[in-house]
Amino acid sequence: MKFAFSTLGVPGLPIPDVVRLAAAHGYHGVELRAHPEEPVHPGLGPAERADVVAEFKAGGIEVLGLAGYARVAAPGDDTPVLDEIRELLGLARDLGAPFIRVFPGADPGQESGEADATAARRLGTAAEYAADLGVRILLETHDSHRTGADAIRVLGAVGHRQVGSLWDVMHTWLGGEQPAETYAALSPFLGYVQVKDIASAEDTTPLPLGAGVLPLAECVELLSRRGWDGWLCWEYEKRWYEAAAPLAGLLGPGREHLSRLLNDAA
Q1: Which stretches of the chain drop beneath a pLDDT of 70?
Q2: Could you give the CA distance from residue 36 to residue 33 in angstroms, rounded to a whole number?
Q3: 138 has which bridge partners?
């Protein structure tokens, strides 16, 4: 398995510094938060996109994916959602990123069958754009569809190779799903796995890997036993928790913790 971290943990950090952090601490890739307040977002022009590619190439680090914010199950018109996904896909293509992340994002009062159908319809349409660009769209286990059982209702209906799943281990745990259940649901669709740690269901402030309650060892052992050799991406949510410790000082111990879990699983 290869290790990455998300720039959600280093809000606003310039790309050269992000690449240096990854290289210095033994990470193979970076998930870029694609938002206007960050250095990388769909509004970048061709020259700026080329600069990002050059920085990552020079540092020997991969762009794992772009974490976007399109809400594919949200009520309303399809067009704005599809436009948002299409812009993200174009940016991913230009940066050489194999994946983009989208959220389910159904409204609390929305009927689940309607939300599932809306998400599947939009993802099915977007999959054709994605296929042309060689990028895969990953539906994250999050918000209205936080478990593998929730996500599979959408992904099974789409049935397209360019649409897969992003397993966020915190959300499936918060949803009461065991890692084996999540993996059984998502394994045919799995793009990569987001790891993190928290103190409890009531306190989701990010912690160093291994310092909290999430079943990271169980997840890594399960993935290893099944021969999965994809990416583990540490999503440290510093952007939403200003009081959390800076990520830079945690990256080295975090990689060592993941390496230990892999060795133990082997």
Answers
A1: none
A2: 9
A3: 101, 164
